[in-house]
Amino acid sequence: MDKLSSNTNLKIENQSVQQETVVTRQIKRIRDYQQISLYKDVNPLDWEDWHWQLKNRIRTKEELAEVIKLTPEEGEGLKKASGRLSLSITPYWAALMDPEDANCPFRRQAVPVAQEWIISPHEMVDPCAEDRDSPAPHLVHRYPDRVLLLATEHCAMYCRHCTRRRLVGEHQELKSASRFDQAIEYIKSNKKVRDVLISGGDPFILEDEEIESLIERIRSISHVELLRIGTRIPVSLPQRITEKLVLMLKKYSPLWVSIHFNHPKEISKRCKIACEMLADAGMPLGSQTVLLKGINDRPYIMKRLVHELIKIRVRPYYIYQCDPVRGTQHFRTPVATGINIVEKLRGYTSGYAVPTYVIDGPGGGGKIPIGPNYILSQAKGKYVLRNYKGKIYTYLE
Ligand SMILES: *Cc1c(COP(=O)(O)O)cnc(C)c1O
Ligand code: SF4
Predict the structure, then answer these.
(1) In this predicted model, what pLDDT tens digit does every residue of 337-364 receive, in sequence order?
(2) Is the pLDDT of residue 174 over 90?
(3) Mean pLDDT, residues 293-299 taken together
(4) Residues of CATH 3.20.20.70 domain(s) within the chain?
(5) What is the pTM of this model?
(6) Whose CA is nearest to atom 7 of ligand 1?
(7) Which residues carry out catalysis?
(8) Strands lying side by side in the sheet with 285-290
(9) What is the CATH architecture of 139-371?
(10) 69 vs 79: CA distance, rounded Å
């Protein structure tokens, strides 16, 4: 049996080598931004300026057609509007898109397609029932000791698989700091809250002063031990991670940062610099990945991703099953796909590189860890276990 499984492994490895050459070929097709007609006259200083990047985001089909050759599905997808989730692609991200290949992960995640308007019966507007567990505006309190604060409904780029698509998008947003008064009061009066996760939208899209004023207010609450920021900006707009931002954040240690990464190609040279700046300033970094069909649902892609993350000091934290949010059926994989990915990682690579695969319990159950089953049977004082290779061991208590 061992021989058989090692043969299968060999086959899988050969297959991976072939697939990796495909990935390498695609990487070679990534253009220098000045090769793209839309950006040919942009000077590098502007390109590095995050405000310039935000101001020049792609918002129309016409602009997008100057960067990539649109397919009929994309053309159809761009015709309609999907709730609040607008089309918005940073020039940085746009330059990473493959002009020819619609399966390119940068394209699939940012460009709407016709399937987005196919709503399957079990899909929901708010699958994690966050609105129900909201004791104050912009706040979600689900677990005993930690809360989620939604600092903004804007992002640099809108991901087509977004779970919070009911909220996020390019609508007007009140900017006054007083919008968080009730949320802060709630945290103050709940001594059990020792961990505040600032997310959104993307908190790093706010100006430094707005971020600092929010962090300051939360930090001044004595029972809050841990502050975390959830962001995708190091991936979608790495220029935003400036020296000034990092110096400001450094003052509020311990501050953990969770970054939404989905594909190894997202770890570009520029993204690496942004993550290094955060890590050098003492912020522990973690990743959050959404399992997406045709993007990262192969074990060899996920393995590459976690290895690249470890190299830039980002600890793989969660892989999420894609939530049943309306219009995301084309992104969703079977649960077995996720379990198989963890099966292929655990034991075969550094434990630090193995994230926890979770399903957010639909209707508000919170994150539920799902993974390969290593307990084969259990009786009084006796556990029958299997290891990563399928070998069986008995543990006596
Ligand atoms: C994910 C999440 C948290 C944080 O959960 P951890 O497992 O501690 O990372 C907190 N509140 C809500 C509502 C969440 O969805
Ligand atoms: S960055 Fe996060 S909140 Fe914003 S669109 Fe993407 S998944 Fe949604």
Answers:
(1) 999 999 999 999 999 999 999 999 999 9
(2) no
(3) 98
(4) 139-371
(5) 0.91
(6) 367
(7) 142-143, 146, 155, 159, 162, 164, 323, 360, 367
(8) 139-141, 146-152, 195-200, 226-231, 255-260, 285-290, 314-320, 356-361, 366-369
(9) Alpha-Beta Barrel (3.20)
(10) 16
